[in-house]
Amino acid sequence: MRIYTRQGDHGQTTLFDGKRVSKDHLRLATYGTVDELNSWLGMAVSLCRHEQLRQILNQLQHGLFDLGADLATPLDSPNSALVNRIQVRHAAEMEKQIDTFTAELLPLKQFILPGGSPLAAHLHIARTVCRRAERHLVELMREEQTGEAPLIYLNRLSDLLFVLARLANKLDGHPETHWHKEA
């Protein structure tokens, strides 16, 4: 497989169904942000010293590849059957993880600042990139059919990343910083 094709030299790219679109198309902004999120998770994996957490992050990276392919392939595409579509059950699986890990953490009684250990800080960045992908997807959904499962998936993923950032701080022995509202 060649890395360069020269097909994008004039500001267009090809979707999985063969349709040519501008590189600033909202669909590309959406799955491009998912790709950025996946890269931040890759950075988090490189910092992770906890095997169980590393496995979860790796699993999430694989899921984000599926999400990217889902978003790159319009629902009415002739290639649609070739894509692993995100399902609501994927979000339900994340809910179980959220519940499991939240039970291991101290209850939240106030807002916390994003940060902490390097791993937790990177997971917080990933969470905010996930929220941006979610905003792009909401905008895309106003223009094109995507199904609702990808939106539910991103919404739940940002919640999971928040919990995983808190868990990373706990595992790394790093206290969370509480937000103090100025008077």
Descriptive key words:
elongated; Hypothetical Protein Ta1238, Chain: A; 2 strands; single chain; mainly alpha; two-stranded antiparallel ribbon; 183 residues
Please describe the topology of this protein.
Layout: E1 12-14, E2 20-22, H1 26-47, H2 51-72, H3 88-102, H4 118-143, H5 149-171
Structure report:
It is a single chain. The chain has 183 residues and is mostly helical. It has one domain (18-103, 113-171): Up-down Bundle (Hypothetical Protein Ta1238, Chain: A), CATH 1.20.1200.10. The protein is 59% helix and 3% strand. It contains five helices and two strands; from the N terminus they run E-E-H-H-H-H-H. The chain has a two-stranded antiparallel ribbon. A hairpin with a 5-residue loop joins strand 1 (12-14) and strand 2 (20-22). It is elongated. The protein starts with 11 loop residues before the first strand and ends in a 12-residue tail after the last helix. The mean pLDDT is 93.
* Helix fraction bin: 55-70%
- State the separation between the terminal residues, measured CA to CA: 60 Å
Order of helices and strands: EEHHHHH
Over all CA atoms, what is the radius of gyration? 18 Å
Number of structural units classed as domains: 1
Widest sheet, order of strands: 1-2
CATH top-level class: Mainly Alpha
Strand percentage lies at under 5%
Shape: elongated
